[in-house]
Amino acid sequence: MSTPRKTGRRPGDPAVTRTAILDAAKRVFGEAGFERATIRAIAVEANVDPALVHHHFGTKQALFAAAHEIPIDVPQLVLALAGLPKEQLAEQIVRMYLSIFGEPGSPALSLLRAAATNDPAALMLREYLESALLDNAHVLIDQPDARLRIALIGSHMIGVLFAREIVALPEIADRKIDELVPVLVPMVQRYLTDPNLVGHLPKPGIE
Amino acid sequence: MSTPRKTGRRPGDPAVTRTAILDAAKRVFGEAGFERATIRAIAVEANVDPALVHHHFGTKQALFAAAHEIPIDVPQLVLALAGLPKEQLAEQIVRMYLSIFGEPGSPALSLLRAAATNDPAALMLREYLESALLDNAHVLIDQPDARLRIALIGSHMIGVLFAREIVALPEIADRKIDELVPVLVPMVQRYLTDPNLVGHLPKPGIE
Q1: Does B157 sit within 8 Å of A160, measured CB to CB?
Q2: What is the predicted ipTM?
Q3: B 11-70 residues with CB below 8 A of A?
């Protein structure tokens, strides 16, 4: 490994090591994107052993989330949600999403803002969403179009966040989360389970 | 009015006047927001008579659209759509929206990108959407929650645009508009007409 940097951190202090890894992860993800970034490259950038990165953060998805202050590990959450009764799934998804991201200063906002104006940030967000969310769509949705369905749910949720926290449309921004949940749940439920929704998609002539 | 500027334009050339008005409109909307900007202030900034601005562009909403290269006048379009049979409305909305904005280089993208990173641009977009779209919601939707319903449709559509053109999620970005329309139409239809969708919203206890 390379020699210690002049950051003043003491090797061996776990909090300092954690911060150094998160800073390095943010830089490496930002430069290489999510796919091309490796735990090894992040460890080199942070000047620590790769085993230590695994020890502190587990997977690359979890490290990405931690570096961007996203307080959930999406693949793990998908697994947990898959254990719920199907009729509760939509409500849990909407409620968790809005609780985590639908408040002022939400960590997802800086990712959205960066993606909106900066192509490498958009690529990084796409690759993260594909790896953490879309690649696990089949765990939640037992349909051949699971990836499309999850992408549509994600689109709607991103749009609600945009309307609520960025454009601040009063109709969305001034409502409590408890008021928005029952409105959004039927839509998400439909994307999750309606067998006809996307069934006729590849053959637009068939009704 | 003030003396001509040193832009080299010849007063009296309609194309030059139009361009001067559009440039002035963009500046005034960007600085004052949509609500506080006036046709008069834009005319002063463009060094032309306010009557000429009205003559070229009609309403403030239409001038805003022209200045930001949005090729539709939303209030006029809402009136035209209101004449359609209710069961065609959702399809028309989705198809027009995706045709106009769902292609690379869409004019709405620069508004979204600016709003995402710049508070005055977000305010300007909010005020324009309120004036051009939300204030006309009752023309399309015969329900007490017409504004919320339009805001939800708008949220979903903005999210689809974000996923398609900014994040470029392949599930949304790689599909033809004709493939996305039948998937999105039932959702929009539901927001437009489902009487139960938002009916129990103010009293979450009632089912």
Answers
A1: no
A2: 0.87
A3: none
